[in-house]
Amino acid sequence: MSPDLIHRDSFIERDARARAAALLDPGSFRELLDSFARVTSPWLPRQGIVTQADDGVVVAKGTIDGQPAVVLAIEGAFQGGSMGEVSGAKIAGALELAVADNEQGIPTRAVIVFETGGVRLQEANLGLAAIAEIHAAIHALRAFGPVIGITAGVVGCFGGMSIAAGMCSYLLVTREARLGLNGPAVIEQEAGVEEYDSRDRPFIWSLTGGEQRVATGLADACLADDTDAIRAQVVAWLSAGAPEHQRSERIAHYLALLSAVDTTHQPSPADVRALYVHGDNA
């Protein structure tokens, strides 16, 4: 085994709290509404589901490269990282406070670590409302500087939160990450296993994995599972500032690509890459 692999500090193997701490400057981590605040979902116990004290979201204030920042990390090990009323409100509220900081001259940046299957089915409409608030807050915060998203694995990023990831100024993924609007099991359920076999892992990653998403321009960097490298990229993007054109503002571009898709057959990963590369050069 390569010495680099032996000594690499895995980001994927960290829980949400450790991921947030690793992105912030040493000694600057301060958690808001932590587990001791006991802010839990009021809806899960009614359905016989054990709650988690932070409802699966860590909100951490601190600095990144000396600059005020908030890191929002979703815990994929709790309910698949799904968003409910409390967890969604924690993210939306933190982003809204970052907007208020910027309006008052405090240049607070935001990093969101996505590890989520989307809306929590047990809190459906409440989760949807919270995700809409997250989208609005990301849009507002982008006016002051870059909002950075990270999708590392193992859960990936799906559902309404994949839209939030797409709204980020920069999106970092690993090879192990997956990004898509609908999860493989949902597509298989609705379209059939012949259309999308959720058990075919090479097939799934070839279409929604980190490398493919960068190759098609839907993410900005695909890095190895290394905490130092991921943090260094976040610092570099914060230093670079917001991109000239936000990906989510290229509506006509992506509509044109979708209209060019041949729906009479299932496109291969190579077909998808060719379509997006041609579209960018058009």
From TrEMBL:
<dbReference type="GO" id="GO:0005975">
    <property type="term" value="P:carbohydrate metabolic process"/>
</dbReference>
<keyword id="KW-0808">Transferase</keyword>
<dbReference type="InterPro" id="IPR011762">
    <property type="entry name" value="COA_CT_N"/>
</dbReference>
<dbReference type="GO" id="GO:0016740">
    <property type="term" value="F:transferase activity"/>
</dbReference>
<dbReference type="InterPro" id="IPR034733">
    <property type="entry name" value="AcCoA_carboxyl_beta"/>
</dbReference>
<dbReference type="GO" id="GO:0006633">
    <property type="term" value="P:fatty acid biosynthetic process"/>
</dbReference>
<dbReference type="Pfam" id="PF01039">
    <property type="entry name" value="Carboxyl_trans"/>
</dbReference>
<protein>
    <submittedName>
        <fullName>Malonyl-S-ACP:biotin-protein carboxyltransferase MADC</fullName>
        <ecNumber>2.1.3.10</ecNumber>
    </submittedName>
</protein>
<dbReference type="GO" id="GO:0003989">
    <property type="term" value="F:acetyl-CoA carboxylase activity"/>
</dbReference>
<dbReference type="GO" id="GO:0016831">
    <property type="term" value="F:carboxy-lyase activity"/>
</dbReference>
<feature type="domain" description="CoA carboxyltransferase N-terminal">
    <location>
        <begin position="1"/>
        <end position="253"/>
    </location>
</feature>
<dbReference type="InterPro" id="IPR017556">
    <property type="entry name" value="Malonate_beta"/>
</dbReference>
<dbReference type="InterPro" id="IPR029045">
    <property type="entry name" value="ClpP/crotonase-like_dom_sf"/>
</dbReference>
<dbReference type="GO" id="GO:2001295">
    <property type="term" value="P:malonyl-CoA biosynthetic process"/>
</dbReference>
